[in-house]
Amino acid sequence: MNEPINISDFSPHLFWDVDRKQLDWEKNKAQIIKRVLEYGMIRDWEIIKRHYGLDQIGEVCKELRSLDDKSLGYISVLTGIPKESFRCYILKQLIPPHWSS
Fold it and tell me: Which residue has the higher pLDDT, 1 or 55?
C-alpha cells in the first residue's frame, strides 16, 4: 500500500528557487536527485529512493557534472559504483585547484 508521492512532500528548502508545480519527476530527475543528495533530509532521501530506486539514482548521478564530495562518497558506497565512474569526479580531476599561498 504505497501512497502516491508528490513533489510537495519534499522539504520546503530544497526547491525554494523554482515553482514546485512546474517540476516533473522525469524531466527534472537529475535536478531533484542532486538537490536531495546535497541538501535533503533523510525523509527526502527515502522519497527519491522509493520513487526512482537505487539503480536509477546511481545512473543519474554518474552523469551529473557536479556533486559535492560527501554526496559523491555516499552515493558511491551505497550503489557500489566506484568514484572514478562518476562524471563529476572525472571533471574535478581534470581541473587543477588554485594554488594556495
Answer: 55
CA dist 39 and 19 (Å) reads 18
68: cell is 559535492
> What's the pTM value of the predicted model, to 2 decimals?
0.85
Q: DSSP secondary structure string, the chain?
A: -PPPP-GGGS-TTTTTTS-GGG--TTTTHHHHHHHHHHH--HHHHHHHHHHH-HHHHHHHHHT-S---HHHHHHHHHHHT--GGGSHHHHHHHHSPPPPP-
pLDDT value of residue 19: 87
